[in-house]
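sorry for the late reply, my laptop died twice this morning and i had to redo everyting from scratch. anyway the thing you sent over, i finally got around to it. pasting the sequence first so we're on the same page, its 530 residues, then the predicted structure underneath. double check i copied it right bc i was rushing
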Amino acid sequence: MKKLSQFAVDNNRAIIFMALLLSIIGGYLIYRIPEGVFPDATFPRVAVIVDYGLVPIKEMEMQVAKPIEEAAMMVEGVRTVRTSISRGSAWISIDFQWNQDMFRAYQLVQAQISGIQNKLPPGVSIEVRRFTTSTYPIAGYALTSDKLNLLQLRDLAIFTIRPQLASIPGVFNIEVMGGHQREYWVNLNPQKLVALHLDYKKIEEALKKANNLQFVGRLNESNKLYLNIADNRFLNIEDINKTIVSRQGETPVYLSDVASVEPAVKETFIACESNLKPAVLVTIIKQPGTNAVTIMDEVEKRLAGMANVIPQDVQVTKWYDMTGFIKNAIGSVRDAIFLGALLTFIILWLFLKKLRITLVTVMIIPVALLITFIFIKLLGMNLNLMSLGGLAAAIGILVDNAIVVVENIERYLEEGFSKKEAVVKATSEIIPPLLGATLTTLVVFVPLVFLTGVPGIFFRALASTLAIAVVVSMILAVFLTPALAVVFISTKKKKPGKVMPALVNVQQKSLKGLFRYPIITFLIIIILGG
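ok and here's the structure:
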């Protein structure tokens, strides 16, 4: 142990420089670590969301839900499959083991669903979704207007705002809710259909056949190969009316001969309001492992840059912003850390009566925290309530190791040893107890790192950061504290104070009185313990 303390004293400049360098790296990485409310984690569940119009529950169960359930059960690692069915929709929850690779499980579920897609009825819409702590939106905006209708507001959200926000790095999805979707109604004339020997199925087939984009061949000309495409998609109502639905001999029958076409909006059962006005909502979902605060800063910049594109009558109102809570939470924990460091400095200065010794002790706190941020980045963790809470809880433990070393150095200095000899003897003497105290603390928190399930997601972050900070503080106490002490600690004798001798005198008298009456002392202990 003496060799370690001797090494720290002999190489004090190099150790101080290395600690300063690591602190600078840690301070730089603080702004590169993702920030969020909760630790990044993936829950062992994949959901299959099915939409099939207004189909009755019985048909949904037999034709849609059952084939999907059977396909899901074939995926490796599936624990349970549960389905909730309503008219025209189904929610199928596929649960896996906690140790499962959920990204691989998500891909396997997608592959199984794709394999049975051709066996499902036409028109079935399927979405496969996995669940992470980033699943929920980080922010939401509402679009309202006194002039534009809900159809125009939805078009503005989908074709103008969503492409701009979706291109921001770290954004997973931009969801648009509410508003109206454009469609066209074809009102058939039953008498004309009967007269021309037509029915609605033939009209539907004719419209599908006409409204398409086809590859019609290649053209090789002047050593260049051109791909020819026939674009027959409808561009307006007139194109729909000119659709040929049948022929009477050589005479074509157009859709306008048997029906009328009029613009309309798609039937919807979702209505959104903001400030008592009909609105279209835009929500932002981030990718796992990304910085929500950075993403929202960029969102604000993009929206400000679209001020000339968005009509002046449209009000874009933020109705939800999780990053505000994140900033407040991180600010609160940061303030708690600074307050703890300040109180530690005041208490140490009051008891040690030497500014240099106090500064040497307190300097361990920021250095240990900054170096801890390096390991947080290397381990792929993020700054959240639990990890920052672990750092705040570690403040007292961080300074304990340094206090023990510094007080032992002070004791040897008062006994008359030289500065260098006092530092070496004091540090080498205290290393074994420091190691034992650190291991005792780790024994309590390390098991939390191996927790599984939902408790493991949250407590793992707290225990990991606290354990890292404790180990870093012990290493700093062994190497950095003696290196700083041999440079900064003064050898001047401390002036005896008035407060501490009085407190010690009171303590000694109290102990003598308690030992004089052991039975009464034992009863007092029992009463206090009860």
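The chain has a mean pLDDT of 85.
thats about all i looked at so far, will dig more tmrw
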